[in-house]
Amino acid sequence: MTQTLTPTAAWKQMQDGNQRFVDDAPRHPNQDVARRRHLAEAQHPVATLFGCSDSRLAAEIIFDLGLGDLFVVRNAGQVIGESIVASLEYAVAVLEVPLIVVLAHDSCGAVRAAIDGTAIDAAPLPPHIWKLVAPIVPAARKVLAESGGSTVDEIDAELVGREHLRNTVGDLLQSSEIISNAVAEGRLGIVGANYRLAEGTAVPVITVGIETDGIETEGQSPATKEGSE
Ligand SMILES: [Zn+2]
User: Fold this and answer.
1) What are phi and psi of 205, to 5 degrees?
2) What gap in Å lies between CA 111 and CA 158, rounded to an integer?
3) For residue range 164-202, what is the model confidence (pLDDT) as tens digits?
4) N or C end: fewer C-beta atoms under 10 angstroms in the chain?
5) Alpha helices of 23-136 — where are they, by DSSP H?
6) How far is the CA of 1 from the centre of ligand 1 (A)?
7) Which domains does the chain possess?
8) Tell me, what DSSP letter sits at residue 6?
């Protein structure tokens, strides 16, 4: 049975599962017939995860969770959109999840496409794909400008990915009152994490409404510690 956890406790549970996965000691919890039957009436997931669609980010596997544990929303590059925000709002308002995990990863194809798209002589992308990756372009331009105007080929894709991740968490708070209110009331935390493909680790880059004692964050941490309106 899953009880409603605090945001920090929910993140701890996910970190513990990720550590088991990293250590090659997964328990594969909540994947049996009893669990399936128990869940038939209702779901009480530990968290909602909004991540990149990349096949290597299989959500329940990398956090060693099972049926009914995660409410998952994914698209290429984890780009905020109407249906994404609505799905996350549903998880927060109706399912009462205490945690949103936004999951990016290194070597992301969508981030690469956005970086390549900033070149003056970039070949046009198919319209639907361009529409998806265009929100990542400001992160690419910012990193490009801060690096002293090096060429697109030299731009650090991992820096762009982390910038895009921070932007995504900020956009989420700005675009949804349900989410920002829940954070302000202490009912919801948000963790923007970067998944390292080779190591299997989900490393926090930005946290909102989470007690950060002992949580290592990757890269420079921005001002966003509390929910903004
Ligand atoms: Zn990706």
Assistant:
1) -105, -35
2) 9
3) 999 999 999 999 999 999 999 999 999 999 999 999 999
4) N
5) 33-39, 59-62, 82-93, 109-117, 127-133
6) 33
7) 7-208 (3.40.1050.10)
8) P
CA atoms within 13 A on the CB side of 108: 32
Q: From ligand 1's centre to the CA of 59, what distance in Å?
A: 13
The closest of 180, 184, 169, 179 to 217, measured between CA atoms, is 169
Calculate how far, in angstroms, residue 13's C-alpha sits from the geometric centre of ligand 1.
24
Two structure tokens written together for 21: 């996965």
Rounded Cα distance, 70 and 37, in Å:
17
Tokens of 2: 């899953």
Tell me if 122 sits within 8 A of 116, measured CB to CB.
yes
Q: CB-based burial of residue 142 (10 Å sphere; 0-12 exposed, 13-18 middle, 19+ buried)?
A: middle
